[in-house]
Amino acid sequence: MTEPTHEGEAHGGALGSRLNWLRAAVLGANDGIVSTAGLVVGVAGATDDRAALLTAGLAGLLAGSMSMAAGEYVSVSTQRDSELAALAAEKRELREQPDAELEELTEMLQNRGLSREVAHEAAVQLTERDALKAHASVELGIDPDRLTNPWHAAWASFLAFTAGALLPLLAIVLPPAGWRLLVTVVCVLAALTLTGWSSAGLGGAGPRRAILRNVLGGALAMGVTYAAGTLLGVAGV
Ligand SMILES: [Zn+2]
C-alpha cells in the first residue's frame, strides 16, 4: 500500500485513487487471511485445545495488524516528509528565482509535446493561477492538497488485516474439533479465490492466474505450518 494517492493521480484522480485504496485493502485482507490461517492450522497440527487455538489466532491477528499498521505509518510518513521537503524547496525556488522557474515549467511542458509558444503561454497561465500547485504536479508528480495521511494509511492496513485474519480465526475455533481443519481450509481457499479475483480485477489483469497464485500460496502456507505443527505435536514438544 505505498503511495496510493499518487498512483491514482496518474490514472485519473479520485477514481484511480479510490481503486488503489481498494486494492490495498484487498491485499491487506489477503495478508491477514494467509498469515493467520498458517498460524492456526500449524497450532491445530500440534493440539486440539480450543483455548490454545484461540490464543494463537488472536495473538497472530493483533501482532499482524499492528505490525502492518506500524509499517504503513512509517513508510507513508517517510514519503510524506520527502514530499513536504520537495514542496518547501519548490516554494523557495519560486520565491527566489521566479524567471528560472517559469522557464523550467515551460521546458517541462515542451517535453510533454507542446510547442515552445504554447508551452510558454500555458506556463504563464499556470503560474498566475497557482504556481506551487503547477510545479508540484508537473515537476514532482504530486498534488500538494492531497498528500497521503499516514494515520489513514495505518488505520486502513490495520482494519484490512484484521478483517482478513478474523476468517481463519473463527473458522478454526467455532466448529467441533473433528471439522476444524476442513472448515478452515475450505473457507480460507474460498476467501483467497475471492481476494485473488478482486485484486486482479481492480488491477485490470486477468483473474485466473491471480486466483491460482493466491490459492496455491495460501495452501502452501497452511501445508507447511500444519506439517511443522504435526511434527512438534508428535514429538510432544
Ligand atoms: Zn519548479
Automatic annotation (TrEMBL):
Check the record and name the InterPro entries matching this protein. Answer: Ccc1_fam
Domain of life, per the record?
A: Bacteria
One GO biological-process annotation of the entry reads: intracellular manganese ion homeostasis
Q: Which GO terms describe its molecular function?
A: manganese ion transmembrane transporter activity
Name the residues that span the membrane.
153-175, 181-203, 215-235
Alphabetized UniProt keyword annotations: Membrane, Transmembrane, Transmembrane helix
A GO cellular component annotated for this chain's UniProt record is: endomembrane system
| Principal location | membrane
Tell me the membrane topology, using the record's own terms: Multi-pass membrane protein
Is Transmembrane one of the keywords?
yes
Q: What is this protein called?
A: VIT family protein
Organism equals Streptomyces griseoviridis
